[in-house]
């Protein structure tokens, strides 16, 4: 199965949610090695190697309700994301597990962030066989 490539994406946060949301994503995405890489006034870039996930401050109320998925290297990372995201204050929107309605190896977890976006971490790889 070919993987789609996302160069970067940006979500928006109101002034009062800007810094808390940055901290939440840094914790929730730490299992992927994400950290703050770049910061400019009103916008922060997070990533593992390059800033591919941006959070921008809006003066007005920012719309919520987006869904986006990050690719995990394995099921353990999906499990770690779910725990880290919940521990950081997110709301469970789907525990880690197989979603065979998508395909037989679709293993994902869903968490609502601090402003209501539905964040998913997914792997498409089968569980490694134990020797």
Short structural description:
The chain is an alpha/beta fold and 131 residues long. The protein contains two helices and eight strands, in the order E-H-E-E-E-E-H-E-E-E. The protein has one domain (9-123): 2,3-Dihydroxybiphenyl 1,2-Dioxygenase, domain 1 (Roll).
Question: If you had to describe this structure to a student in words, what would you say it looks like?
Answer:
With 131 residues, the chain is of the alpha/beta class. The protein has a single domain (9-123), classed as 2,3-Dihydroxybiphenyl 1,2-Dioxygenase, domain 1. Helices cover 21% and strands 37% of the residues. The chain has 2 helices and 8 strands. The chain has helices at 15-28, 75-87, and strands at residues 9-14, 35-40, 43-47, 53-58, 67-71, 91-98, 107-112, 118-123. The strands form 2 sheets. The protein has a 4-stranded mixed sheet with strand order 1-4-3-2, covered by helices on one side. A 4-stranded mixed sheet has the order 5-8-7-6, with helices on one face. The longest helix has 14 residues, at 15-28. 28% of the residues are buried. Residues 5-124 form the VOC domain. InterPro entries: Glyas_Bleomycin-R_OHBP_Dase, VOC_core. This is VOC domain-containing protein.
